Structures are given as structure tokens and as C-alpha cells.
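User: My instructor asked us to take a sequence, write out its structure as C-alpha cells, and then describe one feature of it. I'm not sure where to start. Here is the sequence I was given:
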Amino acid sequence: MSIELAPAFILRGTGLPFELMESLSTPESVRSAERALRLEARLRELERQLLEELARTPKDRLSRGERRRAKQAIKHRRSEKLLAETVPELHPRLLLERSRLLSEFCAAEAEVQLMVEAEHRSISERLFDLVRDPKIEEAIWLSSPQAFDGLQRMRP
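Assistant: Let's start with the prediction itself. The C-alpha cells for your sequence are:
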């Protein structure tokens, strides 16, 4: 899973009120990302267990090709039906749990993306509102004329 937070700006907090800096945080994005990462960790552990069960399957039960396809299905999160048909010895409880976790993880990953986009838009709007203050503009220009120029180009 790849998550990119606050891709459009970096803040230096020197001299800014803590309340202002806190208002630019992304708590919902962080919560969503933490949930998705927890689900992904559980999914990886379950996939490790499935791979162990596959390794314990007798050599004469599966051809090398079937074993390879089953490993790929586990690693690339493919259909439980394919796995159950190829290797009926795999524990049905693990396959059902994997299916449930995979659905939850996909939904959580989509939620993270939506939350990051929503909070990013909100924070960007607040930042642009903040830098409309002439004193803030002047402070930015004095601190870094290049940052000021970049900000002017980014303004909606």
C-alpha cells in the first residue's frame, strides 16, 4: 500500500501559533491509514499461514505448476475459489478470513484515498485563506522570496 500525505505543501512552524498548526493536521487521514495498515498486516499474516499450509501439502498431491499457481494466487491476492479448487487441503477458515480481510482492506484503502483528498483540499483552502493576510504575505516574502513566488503561482 502506498500512501502520500499532504503532497502539495510543507510547513515550517517557527513563530506560528500551535492552534494554527494543529488546525492544519490530518487526523482522519491518519486514522484511516492506520486502519488500512493494520488490516494489511493481518492480511499478510494470513497469507503467510496459507503459504505454510501450501508448503505442507504432499509433493505428490500437486504438480510444480499447480503449486506455483497457488503461491502466485496467494501472493497476488487472487480468488479464493481458484485456491480452493487447486488445493482443497487449504483450511477453509483461512480462505474465508482472507476473503473477508481482503474486502475490508480494499474498502479501507479506498477510504484512505478519499480522506486524504478531502483533508488536503480543506487544508489547502485554509492555507490560502491564511496567506491572504498582507502581514503573512510579507513574512513569507521576507523569509523566502522563492517560496512567496511559488505560492503566488499556486493560488487558485
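For the description part of your assignment, you could build on this observation: The chain has a mean pLDDT of 82. Try explaining in your own words what that tells you about the chain.
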